[in-house]
Amino acid sequence: MIRIFDSEEEVAREIAREMQQRLAEDEQSVFCLASGSTPQKSYAHFASSIGGNDGSLKNLRIVSLDEWVGIERSSEGSCYQMLNQDLFSLIPLESDQIEFFDGTAADLVQECSRIDQYIEQYPMTFSLMGVGMNGHIGLNEPGSAVLEYSSVIDLSATTKEVAQKYFHERTVLSEGITLGLGQVIRSQRVITVITGERKAEIVREIFCNPDAKLPAQALLGYDHIDFYLDAKAAKYLDISGEQAG
Fold first, then answer.
1. Rounded mean pLDDT of 132-136?
2. Which of 163, 179, 176 has the alpha carbon at shortest distance from 82?
3. Which residues are within 8 A (CB) of 104 and not within 5 positions of it... i.e. 6 or more apart?
4. How many DSSP H helices and E strands does the chain contain?
5. I want to staple 232 with a disulfide (CB 3.0 to 4.6 A). Which of 9, 130, 151, 197 is the partner?
6. Closest to 171 in 3D by CA, of 184, 148, 155, 149
7. What are phi and psi for residue 148, nearest 5 degrees?
8. Please, how many CA atoms are within 13 Å of residue 224, restricted to the half-sphere of its CB?
9. How does residue 242 score in pLDDT terms, banded at 50, 70 and 90?
10. How far apart are CA 207 and CA 184, in angstroms?
11. DSSP characters for the chain?
């Protein structure tokens, strides 16, 4: 289902509300959360709703979606560091509640296996996905096969360029390590969020061009996966019949 909201702020508040609801209702919560600018407001609202109440977080685990290969976890611009700034540092979590890809691991195949085994042990109950300017999910790039499990991916030229905004100086990026789309789809609940006028063109491709073969299109047609858009991102869509916020 597509839900279209009047503003990015409304999208963020609704996502934060659902995150809090999942945390309250699930005996064991395992969240897979995208990094980047799109979900920042959602995380801020979620952290604000939690405050210092660590009791509600004791059964929460967070598993990595993706990471840049060759970038240290502590580096500005790493996916971990972005999530640390936008969420982890704002809520009381223990280090063993966060399981993240190491993009500098000596054996990246083994690193994929490590995260896959973690998800087998702790299946994801809630996933929040963003969509890249080229329609990627995590670092599953256009033209790549639909992966069932974690993998190392060659980054597209678009992703390499767009990602530069996360770094203070130009940074060489060539590969990413990412969950497969199959793992995302197997989450109990998935919200895919797309906001801002800059995403309007890729939104039109996702929903109006079935031949585009974009990674985001692999998430269409599932009852447990919803796309949350603001009005700016949805400006090229015919929203009749869709649910608006």
1. 95
2. 163
3. 69, 70, 71, 72, 73
4. 7, 11
5. 197
6. 155
7. -85, -30
8. 12
9. very low
10. 19
11. -EEEESSHHHHHHHHHHHHHHHHHH-SSEEEEE--SSTTHHHHHHHHHHHTT-GGGGTTEEEE--EEETT--TTSTT-HHHHHHHHTGGGS---GGGEE---TT-S-HHHHHHHHHHHHHHS--SEEEEE--TTS-BTTB-TTS---SS-EEEEPPHHHHHHGGGGSSS-----EEEE--HHHHHTSS-EEEEE-SGGGHHHHHHHHH-GGG--GGGGGTT-TTEEEEEETTTTTTS--TTSEE-
Tokens of 226: 């919803």
pTM: 0.94
Cβ proximity of 63 and 30 under 8 Å: yes
**Distance, C-alpha 126 to centroid of its chain:** 10
Instruction: Give tens-digit pLDDT for 190-222.
Output: 999 999 999 999 999 999 999 999 999 999 999
Provide the token pair at 199.
């995403």
Q: 144 has which bridge partners?
A: none
Strands 66-68 and 175-178: antiparallel
CB-based burial label for 238 (10 Å; 0-12, 13-18, 19+): exposed
> How far apart, in whole angstroms, are the C-alpha atoms of residue 97 and residue 171?
30
Q: What secondary structure letter does DSSP report for 89?
A: G
Q: From CA 65, how far away is CA 176, in angstroms rounded?
A: 11
Tokens describing residue 4: 């279209």
Residue type, 183: Q
**3-state secondary structure at position 184:** helix
